[in-house]
Amino acid sequence: MRKILKFLTSRLFISFLLISIQIGFFVLIGIYAQSYGVWFQLLSALSVLMSLFVITRDLNPAYKIGWMFLFIVIPIYGGLFYLLFGTHKLNRRLRARVEELDFSFRKGMKDALYSDLLPIRALESYSPSLARQAQFICSITGNQVHVNTQVDYFASGEAWFDDVIIELQKAKSFIFLEFFILAEGEMWDLLLSILLERRKRGVRVCLMYDDVGSIFTTPSHYDRTLRGLGLEVVAFNPLRTHLNSRLNSRDHRKVIVIDGNIGYTGGMNIADEYINRTIKYGHWKDTAVKITGDAVWSLTQMFLQLWSFSTGVTEQFALYQPTITAKTDGFVQPFGDNPLDSHNVAENAYIQVINMAKRYVYITTPYLVLDNEMLTALKIAAQSGVDVRIVTPYIPDKKGVFLVTRANYYKLLEAGVKIYEYTPGFIHAKMFVSDDHVAIIGTINMDYRSFYLHFENAIVLYGSSAIKHVYEDIERTIMLGKPITTKLLKARPWHQRLGGMILKIAAPML
């Protein structure tokens, strides 16, 4: 009885209840409108107006098609839904705050001791095409190319976690952590004990986790509990009890920065399944990269920018610069992407790798929900003789997304793309590697949410020794995968194929 009462009074249940009431209200509006012709016509007219607005906006065609489909199928609700969820504009105050922090971010990158033009010029000598990609990322995000950086690649969550524990215990000045999911369990218990011990020794500890991403894995108001223990904590974009488009803008980044000198990113969240202490979907395959030296500055700045936006307190970025340099291992370019601007830098960075490939492109992704631009790039590369291989999960964590993933297989297979499903379980790694010269490792899924709705981050490696390790790891992973054929797809039950087609249309809005 006590557990039931606790659940009924929890923030999750109350939020769900209030949102359900609002949805029910919209349903009643539709029923009422059908009974009174004037209201039906007004709501239908709203959908028509919104459809005209969508058509004229500078949006991805797949996104437009999804909304147009909704306007046609449910004209009573389509216009209302678009007003609530279709736009991602911030109010004037928040827009000004974003612009202020972006200015501080770019100024910090420009004023940094090692933010000169030498790395990009050296990259131009190494590869003019890769230098163009680096310049594209820099011009949009402000994230520069770095040298004097050591790169270490981790082919599993277990190896990554062991290294993180060692480095955290040596922290002297500050620790920044940013994750989409924070879950109670063995992993978090050990991390928390280290963070509290470091805090007692005067180390500043800042933790930011996504509120919706962690809502099922942490107690209500867990950020308050952690602040009570002496940590600085932000639950990013807290779940509101009213419907609005900002609910979709989640912090999907995974970043750890230690003393400004060591940084990590990759697919891992703080949850036991990521290191296979808990088995949910078979063996969990994930990867990460560790950088030491100059390039950590970009990860630090990305964290502080979103931290300042969330807390309302502008940090002094210059206080957190790296204090060491490392032996140069190729060129390193961490970068971030966010849904608050009109630039789709994450997807375009992927597409550039595909378009530049001459021999091969290997990809791992948990979700394969593609727009026309990405689909076209993959097909053209394969049809041009490039060896394009994609690894996706065999055991999905989201069955609806898995249906869309498989619905995207057909055209890729017909174009010559090779697809493998990771039979031991679920592959969560998000990686591109091409021609032994470039690799991207980070948090960016190949789906609409990562490309258009989430805050994301990744690290691009140009000419680094770690690229070989990424390639070899994906090759080993492919050997464990099941090759997918059109014959295999056609043997699936009809309702799975139909569900995949329907969900594919709706995917941009989900």
Summarize the structure.
The chain is α/β, with parallel strands linked by helices and 510 residues long. It contains 20 helices and 17 strands.
List the keywords.
7-stranded mixed sheet, about 500 residues, alpha/beta, Endonuclease, Chain A, 8-stranded mixed sheet, 3 domains
List the helices and strands and how they pair.
Elements: H1 2-8, H2 11-35, H3 37-56, H4 61-73, H5 75-86, H6 92-111, H7 118-126, H8 128-141, E1 149-154, H9 157-168, E2 174-179, H10 186-200, E3 204-210, H11 222-228, E4 232-236, E5 255-258, E6 262-266, E7 283-285, E8 288-293, H12 296-311, E9 331-337, H13 345-356, E10 360-364, H14 372-383, E11 387-393, H15 399-407, H16 409-415, E12 418-422, E13 425-427, E14 430-434, E15 438-442, H17 448-453, E16 456-462, H18 466-479, E17 481-483, H19 486-490, H20 494-506
Parallel strand pairs: 2-3, 3-4, 7-13, 10-11, 11-12
Antiparallel strand pairs: 1-8, 2-5, 5-6, 6-8, 9-16, 10-14, 12-17, 14-15, 15-16
Detailed description of the structure:
By secondary structure, this protein is an alpha/beta fold. It folds into three domains: about 1-85, no CATH class; about 90-140 and about 150-330, Endonuclease Chain A (Endonuclease, Chain A, 2-Layer Sandwich); about 345-510, Endonuclease Chain A (Endonuclease, Chain A). The chain has 20 helices and 17 strands. It has helices at about 1-10, 10-35, 35-55, 60-75, 75-85, 90-110, 120-125, 130-140, 155-170, 185-200, 220-230, 295-310, 345-355, 370-385, 400-405, 410-415, 450-455, 465-480, 485-490, 495-505; strands spanning about 150-155, 175-180, 205-210, 230-235, 255-260, 260-265, 285, 290-295, 330-335, 360-365, 385-395, 420, 425, 430-435, 440, 455-460, 480-485. The strands form three sheets. Strands 9-16-15-14-10-11-12-17 form an eight-stranded mixed β-sheet, sandwiched between helices. β3, α11 (about 220-230) and β4 (about 230-235) form a beta-alpha-beta unit. The longest helix has 25 residues, at about 10-35. The chain is globular, with a radius of gyration of 23 Å. It starts with a helix and ends with a helix.
